[in-house]
Design brief:
InterPro entries: N-FG_amidohydro (IPR007709), UCP029730 (IPR011227). The chain is of the alpha/beta class and 237 residues long. The protein is built from 5 helices and 9 strands; from the N terminus they run E-E-H-E-E-E-H-E-E-H-E-H-E-H. The protein has helices at residues 47-58, 101-123, 157-168, 186-191, 212-233, and strands spanning 5-7, 13-17, 62-64, 87-88, 91-92, 127-134, 148-151, 173-175, 198-205.
Length: 237
C-alpha cells in the first residue's frame, strides 16, 4: 500500500502536496514511455521539495502523496471523469483504459484523503495550503509568462495576502490563474472550505523550482507570506 507521507510539525498550518510523486505501484502498467514519468503529466515537478522546504521553515506538518497523478488524480472528486486519466496533455495512457476505478480509489484515493481528513480533525489547522507546480508550456499552446498563480474558491483572505506579496516582490502572479480555484479546487473544497477552514493553493511554474537553488528561493519567498496569511485568517472558524 502506498500510504501518504506525513512530515511532522507542530505548527497550525497544514501543507498538502497532491502531486508530489511519480511512483507507479507494482502491478499497474500505464503503457507510457519512461521519460514521460519525469514530465508534468506524471508529477508536479519541484512541488515535493518545495513542500518539504516550507514545512521545515514554518515548523508545520505536511502530507505528501506517494503515487503518480497518472495512476489516479488525487486532486479530483471520486466521480470525476478524469480521475484515472486516459490522456494528459496529448499523452495517451493506454494502461488506464478500462482500469478498475473502484480498486484505484480504494488503494490510493481514499487513503490519501482519509489521511488528510484525520490530520485536519486532529489539529484543526488555522490555514491549509496546497502546493502545486505548472508547466511553462502545454503541448500545442503558447508559453505561459506567469511565474506563479494563487488559486482559491469563495474564501480569498489568504489568497489576497499572497497575490499582493508576490506581486510586490516583482513576481508575475496569476489571480486564479493559470487555473481557477472556483473550478479546480477539489482537495481544498473538501478539507478546507468544506470544514470552515481557510485555505489557498499555490502554483509555481515548474522550471523555477526544478533545482535546489530555485526551491530555496521560492521557499524564502513563500514562507513569510504563508505566515502573514495565517495571521490574517484568524482561528479558522
Amino acid at each position: 500500500m502506498n500510504a501518504p507521507l506525513l512530515v511532522e510539525g507542530a505548527g497550525d498550518v497544514l501543507l498538502l502536496c497532491d502531486h508530489a510523486s511519480n511512483l507507479v505501484p507494482a502491478g499497474i502498467e500505464l503503457g507510457v514511455a519512461s521519460e514521460v514519468m519525469g514530465e508534468h503529466v506524471a508529477v508536479d515537478i519541484g512541488a515535493e521539495p518545495l513542500t518539504r522546504a516550507l514545512a521545515a521553515r514554518l515548523g508545520t506538518p505536511a502530507i505528501l502523496a506517494t503515487v503518480s497523478r497518472l495512476v489516479i488524480e488525487l486532486h479530483r472528486e471520486p466521480d470525476h471523469p478524469a480521475l484515472i486519466p486516459v490522456e494528459s496533455d496529448q499523452v495517451a495512457v493506454p494502461g488506464n483504459v478500462g482500469a478498475d476505478r473502484f480498486d484505484r480509489i480504494a488503494r490510493f484515493h481514499a487513503p490519501y484523503h482519509a489521511a488528510v481528513a484525520a490530520e485536519v480533525k486532529a489539529r484543526r489547522p488555522r490555514l491549509i495550503v496546497a502546493i502545486h507546480s505548472f508547466t511553462r508550456q502545454l503541448r500545442g499552446a503558447p508559453p505561459r509568462t506567469l511565474e506563479a498563480g494563487i488559486l482559491y474558491n469563495r474564501d480569498d483572505r489568504a489568497a489576497r495576502v499572497m497575490i499582493a506579496g508576490l506581486r510586490a516582490a516583482g513576481i508575475e502572479t496569476g489571480d486564479n490563474a493559470p487555473y481557477s480555484g472556483r473550478l479546480l479546487n477539489a482537495t481544498l473544497d473538501r478539507h478546507g472550505e468544506g470544514r470552515g477552514i481557510a485555505c489557498v493553493s499555490i502554483e509555481v511554474r515548474n522550471d523555477l523550482i526544478a533545482d535546489d537553488v530555485g526551491v530555496a528561493r521560492w521557499a524564502g519567498l513563500l514562507a513569510p507570506l504563508i505566515e502573514q496569511a495565517r495571521g490574517v485568517v484568524g482561528g479558522g472558524g
